[in-house]
């Protein structure tokens, strides 16, 4: 859920009245939002960077508001204010108008763009007037969209340019990086695309976007008719066409790998900031030519109609209101609605791309009606709750392991590749691990496939404790499974480790025997459990066995290999047991 920061005084000025923090928190709740925090820019910097980071920074009060992830129209002050005022009945929803295109502002795509970012859309805002506050909001909305629907610019990259500094028609091309040379935003001189990639390799914000195109043989680039580079998406805009407070006409282009997302992003930007144009809420369309010569007009700013049942809306929400009241509730949510017999005809404006199904409309009715105003009532279906058998068994086993003298540990579900592979004498390719696609640290790269590494790391962190150290954990691991719907499955395991000056097989074998006795499993090769010799690189040769339950292998037991102990920085011998407890449910 994205969080936006708005200046309290500017917000109250736009809303036309002042609120206490409690009053505004209640207003946010009624509107389906949440006031997350009341802070200042100085306090935010001090929290992120330390006590000395806030020197000279404004102490103006900021409201940090949590916005639903699909409400792109509320990600800036302009959209938030319009939404609240319409909700309060103080204004009507804005009516947006598209103006006929001008050929001189058309955008032409070349066939080469199909190799990297095949789609583009564009629009023009004319006669716009920026203030410092609206300019900052304009930039901040682009950042919020980039992090949200644009998926960190992988799906869509936004470029905004001062139209008076460039000349159309414009060309969207893809060229080898050595052939792209321009002066990037806020850079002192011209550089090639290759040099820019090296320059931004350590840039705090831009370095995360470089991998999107770095390995491609061609980089996307947008130029005007004179060859002036507007941008090299998704990395950086050109300095020549940068937006300033004096900008009057804005050219907006969005390049994308997902055309639908690009249309949503463009619609959001132009609807939020067309209010500052000489003719409010008026947007000029652009022709965007495909490589085959056909063209589309953007932005489309489409308004569509949905028909929903009054009785279904009442039934799903749990209220009993007439159609006129429901129509009024939807209209308060920027969804102009009229009643037609037993149905509601809803006009979905271009600002509400989050409405994709009737249930979204039912939700907005519930928000406008007020969740606290919905009458509480008993469930119509009698049900009986109960603990899952696997969880009940896990709790019983935890109690018995504790009675046996073992201390419970709770370790991280994520771990490094070395923890589940290299340190245990295996190759990562041999381990059925689920990998994290974008790990933030080397410590959390995969979902654990064993509980053992977590317990060994816990032992290493507690080497000063008196020996013997006896730890256990009963938790889930995740392993790849091609037969599972998601390609992976959870498996509940019991793992125990004994660490002492001596670590014979007998220590954990006693816990295994006690556990099996409690589970009513006899020592039998066919009708109960047994051990079968096993060679595993994680265990000492000749001192490892697999635990077999009625012919099915459910785990391992043995003395850990010295190499494993060294890899986990342990100096005392350890024996370990790890079994799957799900077969006992």
Structural account:
It contains 15 helices and 29 strands. The strands form six sheets. Strands 4, 5, 6, 7, 8, 11, 12, 13, 14, 15 and 16 form an eleven-stranded mixed β-sheet that branches. Strands 20-24-25-29-28-27-26 form a seven-stranded mixed β-sheet, with helices on both faces. The chain is globular and about 85 Å long. It starts with a strand and ends in a 5-residue tail after the last strand. The protein is α+β, with helices and mostly antiparallel strands and 585 residues long.
Concise synopsis of the structure shown:
With 585 residues, the chain is an alpha+beta fold. The chain is globular and about 85 Å long.
Q: Notable features of this structure?
A:
585 residues; eleven-stranded mixed sheet; 26% helix; alpha+beta; globular; Phenylalanyl-tRNA Synthetase, Chain B, domain 3; Phenylalanyl-tRNA Synthetase, Chain B, domain 1
What is the rounded Rg?
31 Å
CATH H level, superfamily name of the largest domain: Phenylalanyl-trna Synthetase, Chain B, domain 3
Q: Classify the secondary structure makeup into a structural class.
A: alpha+beta
Give the CATH topology of the largest domain: Phenylalanyl-tRNA Synthetase, Chain B, domain 3
Strand residue percentage: 25-35%
Low-pLDDT runs of 5+ residues are: none
| Total E-strand runs | 29
Largest sheet: 11 strands, mixed
Distance between the termini: 38 Å
Return the CATH architecture of the largest domain: 3-Layer(bba) Sandwich
Helix content: 25-40%
Q: Number of domains in the coordinates?
A: 4
* Overall pLDDT level: 91
CATH class of the largest domain: Alpha Beta
Could you say which overall geometry the principal axes of the C-alpha atoms support? globular
Count of separate DSSP helical elements: 15
Domain B5: 301-376
Family: Belongs to the phenylalanyl-tRNA synthetase beta subunit family. Type 2 subfamily.
Keywords: Aminoacyl-tRNA synthetase, ATP-binding, Cytoplasm, Ligase, Magnesium, Metal-binding, Nucleotide-binding, Protein biosynthesis
Subcellular location: Cytoplasm
């Amino acid at each position: 859920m994205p969080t936006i920061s708005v200046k309290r005084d500017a917000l109250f000025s736009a809303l036309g009245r002042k609120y206490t923090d409690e009053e505004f928190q209640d207003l946010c709740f009624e509107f389906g939002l949440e006031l997350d925090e009341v802070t200042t820019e100085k306090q935010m910097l001090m929290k992120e960077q330390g006590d000395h980071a806030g020197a000279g920074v404004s102490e103006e009060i900021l409201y940090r508001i949590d916005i639903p992830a699909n409400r792109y129209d509320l990600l800036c002050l302009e959209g938030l204010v319009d939404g609240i005022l319409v909700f309060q009945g103080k204004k009507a929803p804005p009516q947006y108008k598209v103006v006929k295109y001008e050929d001189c502002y058309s955008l032409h795509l070349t066939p080469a763009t199909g190799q990297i970012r095949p789609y583009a859309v564009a629009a023009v805002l004319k006669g716009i007037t920026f203030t410092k506050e609206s300019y900052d909001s304009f930039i901040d909305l682009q950042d919020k969209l980039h992090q949200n629907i644009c998926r960190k610019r992988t799906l869509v990259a936004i470029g905004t340019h001062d139209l008076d500094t460039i000349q159309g028609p414009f060309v969207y091309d893809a060229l080898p990086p050595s052939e792209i040379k321009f002066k990037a935003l806020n850079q002192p001189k011209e550089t090639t695309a290759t040099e820019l990639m090296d320059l931004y390799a350590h840039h705090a914000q831009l370095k995360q976007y470089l991998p999107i195109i770095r390995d491609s043989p061609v980089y996307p680039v947008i130029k005007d008719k004179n060859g002036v580079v507007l941008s090299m998406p998704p990395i950086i805009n050109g300095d020549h066409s940068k937006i300033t407070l004096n900008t009057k006409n804005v050219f907006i282009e969005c390049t994308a790998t997902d055309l639908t997302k690009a249309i949503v992003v463009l619609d959001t930007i132009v609807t939020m900031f067309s209010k500052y144009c000489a003719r409010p809420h008026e947007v000029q369309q652009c022709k965007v030519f495909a490589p085959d010569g056909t063209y589309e007009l953007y932005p489309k700013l489409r308004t569509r109609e949905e028909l929903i049942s009054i009785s279904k809306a009442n039934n799903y929400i749990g209220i009993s209101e007439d159609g006129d009241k429901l129509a009024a509730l939807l209209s308060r949510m920027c969804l102009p609605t009229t009643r037609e017999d037993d149905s509601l005809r809803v006009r979905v404006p271009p600002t509400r791309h989050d409405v994709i199904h009737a249930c979204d409309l039912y939700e907005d009715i519930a928000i406008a009606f007020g969740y606290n105003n919905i009458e509480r009532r008993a469930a119509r279906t009698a049900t009986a709750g109960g603990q899952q058998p696997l969880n009940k068994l896990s709790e019983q086993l935890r109690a018995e392991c504790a009675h046996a003298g073992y201390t419970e540990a709770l370790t991280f579900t994520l771990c490094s590749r070395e923890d589940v592979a290299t340190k245990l004498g295996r190759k990562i390719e041999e381990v059925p691990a689920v990998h994290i696609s974008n790990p933030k640290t080397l410590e959390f790269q995969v979902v654990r496939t064993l509980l053992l590494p977590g317990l060994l790391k816990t032992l290493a962190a507690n080497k000063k404790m008196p020996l013997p150290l006896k730890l256990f954990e009963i938790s889930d691991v995740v392993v790849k499974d091609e037969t599972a719907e998601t390609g992976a499955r959870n498996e509940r395991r019991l793992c125990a480790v004994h660490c002492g000056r001596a670590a014979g097989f007998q220590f954990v074998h006693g816990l295994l025997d006690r556990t099996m006795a409690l589970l009513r499993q006899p020592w039998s090769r066919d009708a109960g459990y047994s051990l079968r010799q096993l060679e595993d690189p994680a265990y000492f040769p000749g001192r490892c066995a697999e635990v077999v339950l009625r012919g099915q292998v459910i785990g391992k037991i043995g003395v850990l290999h010295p190499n494993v102990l060294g890899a986990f920085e342990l100096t005392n011998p350890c024996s370990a047991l790890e079994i799957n407890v799900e077969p006992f449910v």
